[in-house]
Write a structure and sequence with these properties.
The protein has helices at 15-26, 63-66, 84-93, and strands at residues 7-12, 29-35, 42-49, 52-58, 76-80, 105-106, 111-117, 123-129. The chain has 136 residues and is of the alpha/beta class.
Length: 136
């Protein structure tokens, strides 16, 4: 059986703010935008990172499900880049909120990485694989 993770559905506080973050800072391509009524707020945004799709949806429609949970807690996502140091400086230039680690560091398993936090607290490990292909 061939299995592949293709997308993630992320509940966010403000779809437009998250859309701006993922498009402007992370470099995701905007694929689709949806609104319930013309001129209304975004109710769904689909973005692509390579072959992976991010689907951003406002959490207010699911408020009861989030009553005892904070957005972004309990999930840590990863993005592989060709040049982690250049991506780090791009994030600084764009004013992105960095967390967990400061500048990129070399890890014992062969990654050079830093952590980035999105507007809702989702943590992304931004890494460059320097393990010689062990982690691809």
């Amino acid at each position: 059986m061939d299995v592949q993770v293709t997308s993630v559905f992320m509940y966010v506080d403000d779809v437009q703010k998250s859309l701006d973050f993922y498009h402007e800072i992370v470099g995701a391509e905007v694929v689709q935008l949806h609104v319930e009524e013309e001129g209304g707020p975004l109710t769904l945004a689909l973005l692509r990172l390579g072959d992976f799709t991010l689907m951003l949806h406002p959490q207010d429609e699911e408020t009861a499900d989030f009553q005892n949970n904070k957005l972004g807690v309990g999930i840590h996502l990863q993005v592989r880049v060709d040049d982690v140091d250049a991506f780090y400086h791009h994030c600084l230039d764009e004013g992105a909120m960095l967390s967990v680690s400061s500048e990129p560091v070399d890890q014992p398993w062969g990654w050079r990485e830093f952590a980035l936090k999105d507007p809702d607290g989702y943590v992304w490990s931004i890494y460059q694989d320097k393990s010689g292909g062990q982690w691809t």
